[in-house]
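Usage

Read records sequentially. Each one opens with the input sequence:
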Amino acid sequence: MSKLKILLVSANAIQGATLRVDAEFKAVQQQLGQTADVRYVPSATWEEVAAQVEGYTPRVVHFSAHGGDSEEILLTTREGRPHPIPTKALEQLFKVMRGKIRLVVMNSCFSERQARAIAKFTDGVLGVKLRLPEEVALGFSPRFYKAISEGESVAEAYERAMVLVYSARPEKHQIPRYHGRVPADKLKLVPIKRPHTKSKPKPTLVPGPDLEAAETEESSSPSPASFSIMSCQSLIWDVKIDEEGDANNELAYAGIVLPPGRPYVFKLPAAEVQSGHTSQFELTRDNRTIADAHLREVEISPTKVHMNVEFDNRPTVENPGRFVLSCWDWNVYAMNLEEFRQKPHFSETHDGVDYAQKFVPESWANFTLAISFPSQMEFDKSPYFEVYYPAKAAEKGRNDELTQRYRNCFHYTPVSNQARLTIQRPQSPFLYRISWQLGQGKTLVASPLTGIQRQKQRRFTDRLAEMKHTLDAEGIEKSAGVGLEALQLREIINSVLVSFAAWVEELLKGAELDTETLEVSLMVLDEKYKEKSPTNRDGFPVLRIVAGTLLREKAYRDLYFFVGDGNAGRAWKHRMARIYDWNDESNPKRHIYKTLPGAFRHRFLISVPLIDPRSTALIYGILNLGTSSEDQAELLRKFGKKPGIEKLTDHAQTYVLKRLKELIRVN
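and closes with the structure output:
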């Protein structure tokens, strides 16, 4: 059984005030003995806390410090002066350590607000709102951690600790309060070592002979084969596609049994998308996920997420594991045939056929795939079901025999626009797929341009794209000829962007914007220098930055998006402003972002389409306004609300686009 790791941070930063933190630490150590690993950081600075949290990776971080009237925890500077720690700094630390730190305890005055702020990044947080009597702190912590170390839940440990706390007669608001994503009665930090018993498998589980051998002979030396056995009895995959082509996925695994030998890891297949990009998995912390399940990264990229699930306790036939994963697929599905043909994965051999599929690696007791379609999706042929051989199989293509065998397990209901496949003990290993044929549609995205409109758009975008490629090319003289002409054009474009930034400053009542952390840029659709997708040999038009403040960075000079991808790509596709806000955890669609390693990382970004006021189908480019500074992001978030979005969009159309068209001579 692994030891509970606790990082106890203390700071007595206020002159004349006292904290008996050493006594609290010794009391905790005395209660826990050798059952836990407690590391003590006295007189802590913020730098020391960050280093210890990242290097020691505790399951629990415990703060014993003063709290100021600003409701910020007080640590110390290197000189020993009080140092209030901003809430944003705490949020960032625990966001970076998400999934590793399970519980934060804030034994400090006025810590309630900060406890609530960081609760979204950890399983649970205990904080207090008003001044905490030392008798309460000294009585609470030792009993609380003793119960935690014995395998009790946070709720059970809390009740045990409060036996002594109430003897100090604390005020109602002076006792610790719990906040967290995981209910306190479900959050356990220490695996419980259960006595081994031989028993027959439960009726719902059907392990093979090797798995039964591993279960009944765990105390002896299992055969090498038994160590390789892992089993999952049920998977229910719910896919909800919305009108923007995004899909919210929920995957519920149950009946998981793993072989003896740490670590107890259930290997998940990688999730990949042919177009668009996908988010990382998150565990849904409800009663469908056992408390000792944790996610572990294997490989993360915009189009591929590979993560595994690790358990503190070994899932067995008697006590099988279960968990629920959720993730988003962005810009993956099309609403109609025209939109489908614009996607980089488009293939004429499968024109308009979209699908969702799942690989079934073993004979599960139950497999369910359910898809909810938006009303905006146009079908030429209703959803249908197929079984395919996996990519590495000797045979290729569709398995007609299994498709026929399971045809009655599939149902599509037009009234609710839902397709559902439920199979008991599906044949493995095969790909189970729900497909649909898209039809013609009349959507804003697919609205055709007239010949004259198309010419205007091409003149505008081609000239700016050519300017970019000329200036990016090596060996071209910039002081004469086409090089000089391109340089002069970019300077003119940049002057318009500078005027736009000045207008933004005026709206912010004179607040000065820091050019080192600010992005103001212009993107256009480059149809001449196309890019290939990983799944298609043909090139597709892409959005590129042609002018702005970030072109000093090569990563941004080389950046491109397919239409619909990233913040700017979504603004182009949907003909409306799109917002990315690093600090907004409540709205998943404000967290769609393509990270560039080592490059500028936004805290806030708004992308505004430059649309001709006489035709909503005629879009010339994307105007980006963003920042990598949290302080500056607080100013720009004014444009993240409806009045700010409308004002910014109006100025982008009436001034920025108008001025750019005049300069490039597009009437």
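Summary fields computed downstream for this record:
- The first strand starts at residue 4 and ends at 11.
- The radius of gyration is 29 Å.
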